[in-house]
Request: fold
Amino acid sequence: MTNGQLPAGFQSIDTPLNLYDYEFCITNLREVPDDLDLKWLTGSYVIIEYSQLQTVPPALLRIMPPYFSLSGNPISELPPEVFEIEGLTDLGIGDTNIRELPRNVTQLSSTLTSIFVGRTNISYFWSWTDEMLGRISIRRVPRAIYAGGTTYCEDLEKILTKSANTFSAVPSPSYSSQLMDLTEAGPAGDIRAFVDCNPTVSGFSGPLYPLAAEDKQNGIHS
Reply:
């Protein structure tokens, strides 16, 4: 993409009335227009993965995507509003530079059922995450949080194998009462009913775009 910007066609005000799916993976995209929400249809799927976005563009939030992924971008901080989009069910933020989810999510989306944070440095979850645990996914995604390759899952494994007896994060009363409960971290605990620590899977838990399948089917082979 020229200068890391969307091609002119994607910035047109003449968006086709049936275009509700935007998927970009492995690009040099580094910014989107501030008024993109006036051009893309409200409720569109937005997947911009492994690109160069350093912050979450507010315009993308105003599109109110039900399926939203910014996995693989060099983003280090997330605004609370990402988790407050009504209609959003699946959120991909794995392989970013984040070390924590925002603390002050006060109006958690009632529709959010799955968060994909694999391969990040997240080591704890705030109390607001408890509200989404146990929700039924319309896509039948079995876990609420996919965290393979995170510090949190490394801690869980150490606790399970008894090579550690606590999480590495400094304890806080503001943490999740379920996901940071040591009594639930063992093999008989409930944490694994909510958190998946398996390696990420292309097209499902990271990236959400089915890159591996796409490459296998359409890639150039010698």
User: Anything to note?
Assistant: The chain has a mean pLDDT of 95.
